[in-house]
Design goal:
This protein is an all-alpha fold. It contains 6 helices and no strands. The protein has 2 domains: about 60 residues, no CATH class; about 60 residues, no CATH class. Helices cover about 75% and strands about 0% of the residues.
């Protein structure tokens, strides 16, 4: 096996499996079992490839289930509207707010992960209180 391209999970699974195969084989040798050698072909030709296949399958499924972090906020908003999660007015309000933002990070904060507008209201409240403080200082 080559170390190039292997994930840390694959390396750990291979190391643990190889260690277990060697421990069983040499344990049987120490106990005086004459057929201890059979553990090597079974372990290295059967168990190790099966474990590596399962690890790769697990990692592929995790990658497929993981949500994309770089999703376009505008596209996400359109999809929510298309699914009927947002009314026309909500969609237009969120779209206006989204287009007013300067960066994708701001857009995610204003749009909210679950559709609430708490992030924007908090931002507006802090801006208003800052403006009031500025007026009081003058």
């Amino acid at each position: 096996m080559s170390d190039e391209g292997e994930t840390p999970l694959e390396q750990i699974a291979a190391g643990v499996t190889i260690g277990a195969i060697l421990a069983v084989a040499f344990g049987l040798l120490a106990l005086g079992v004459s057929w201890f050698w059979i553990v090597f072909p079974i372990g290295f030709a059967g168990v190790l490839p099966a474990v590596m296949g399962l690890v790769k399958l697990y990692e592929r499924r995790q990658e497929q289930e993981a949500p994309e972090e770089d999703e376009d906020p505008l596209e996400a908003l359109r999809e929510r509207y298309a699914r009927g999660e947002l009314s026309d007015a909500e969609f237009e309000r969120k779209l206006d707010r989204l287009l007013e933002t300067e960066s994708p990070a701001d857009a995610r904060r204003f749009e909210g992960l679950n559709g609430d507008e708490k992030g924007f209201e908090d931002e507006r409240d802090s801006t208003e209180s800052t403006e009031e403080l500025d007026k009081n200082l003058e």
